[in-house]
Design a protein that fits this description.
about 250 residues, mainly alpha, 12 helices, globular
Length: about 250
């Protein structure tokens, strides 16, 4: 398969990303951040410890909103829409590698969200004080690899991928919270189940470390990256081995 033929889809994929995937989370983050900044900018000195602490809290809130909405909206029905709506008949009317097409799209979306997160972070920093923008970009990337990887696998396999992804994410969060709670009385088999659920608690730990200015906990990051990339590769395998028209 010629690389040029796949690259020809880039401008269409970029347009879909900016309009359908990144537009809403970016708009929400900008509006929320601007309203808070406008409300408090006249009464807070961003150079004081109090101002810096408040700015960091707002930064973390906006970042969390953007990362969460962006990760889920970015990967939801990334394959299922083309399959269930019959778009694949147009997209793949010419000889095109389906796996390469969606791998390129998934990678483009991930890079796009990381870039927008960085731009939003620097925009907020320019209006307030020094912020952990690099940490924000890293956390966005890790969330995309994890949620985007698992979401891609689900979208390649089933049509109800968005609902299942949300369920799996919420279930994983609840189970890890219960397991790590003091004096936890979880059943042993339920504790074992947390070993295969999404390692969302490790992403949270990485986020807290980076936002606090600490070094990257590479053991946790490696686990998150491997989990998400294995799911992504399995999604490509599903696309390669299953019939798209179903």
């Amino acid at each position: 398969m010629k690389r040029g033929r796949i690259n020809a889809y880039l401008k269409f994929q970029l347009g879909d990303f900016l309009i359908l995937r990144a537009g809403l989370p970016t708009l929400v983050a900008v509006m929320f951040g601007y309203m808070l900044w406008k409300q408090m900018s006249g009464s807070i000195d961003w150079t004081t410890p109090q101002g810096q602490g408040f700015a960091l809290q707002v930064f973390q809130t906006i970042a969390s909103v953007f990362i969460t909405i962006g990760s889920f909206l970015g990967v939801a029905r990334i394959v299922a829409d083309d399959r269930s709506n019959g778009y694949f008949r147009f997209l793949f009317s010419k000889p095109v590698s389906i796996e390469r097409f969606y791998a390129q799209q998934w990678l483009l979306y991930g890079i796009g969200f990381v870039a927008i997160a960085g731009l939003l972070g620097y925009w907020f920093q320019s209006a307030t004080t020094q912020m952990p923008v690099t940490g924000l970009m890293v956390v966005m990337g890790l969330n995309w690899i994890l949620i985007g990887g698992v979401g891609f696998l689900l979208s390649a396999a089933i049509n109800a991928d968005a609902a299942v992804l949300v369920f799996v994410y919420v279930l994983s969060t609840i189970l890890h919270t219960l397991k790590d709670a003091p004096f936890s009385r979880m059943w042993p088999w339920l504790k074992q189940l947390t070993r295969v659920t999404l390692p969302v608690h490790k992403v949270d730990f990485i986020r807290n470390q980076l936002y606090a200015g600490n070094s990257m906990p590479w053991m946790h990051a490696t686990h998150v990256i491997m989990y998400g990339m294995i799911a992504f590769v399995l999604g490509l395998v599903v696309l390669r081995r299953s019939s798209f028209a179903r």
